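User: Show me a protein chain along with its predicted structure.
Assistant: Here is one chain, sequence first, then structure tokens.
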Amino acid sequence: MNRSLLLLIIFAAVATYIPRFLPIYLLRNANLPMWFRKWMGYIPISIFAALIATDVFFYEDAVELNVLTNPKLLPSLMTILVAYKTKNMIYSILAGVVAISIMVWMQ
């Protein structure tokens, strides 16, 4: 491996790690207000929802809300329904995998 490539990888790793580490390190002893801690609790689910929404609703570089033309929409709705009814993550994952497999098989 080339030395400059190795340095590039190391610097990229450090540049990725620092923004994640610094807030945790600097705020480790801080007594943050309850409203702020509650607000911070919503960040992971918000990011996850944004990632899922872009994958489900965008089909062929456009927003596609038609169940007949977007093959990801119906399996997503079925997964949400199973998750809501059963409150069981394993059943939800299995329902999603089975639903998307059926949609891919039918195409």
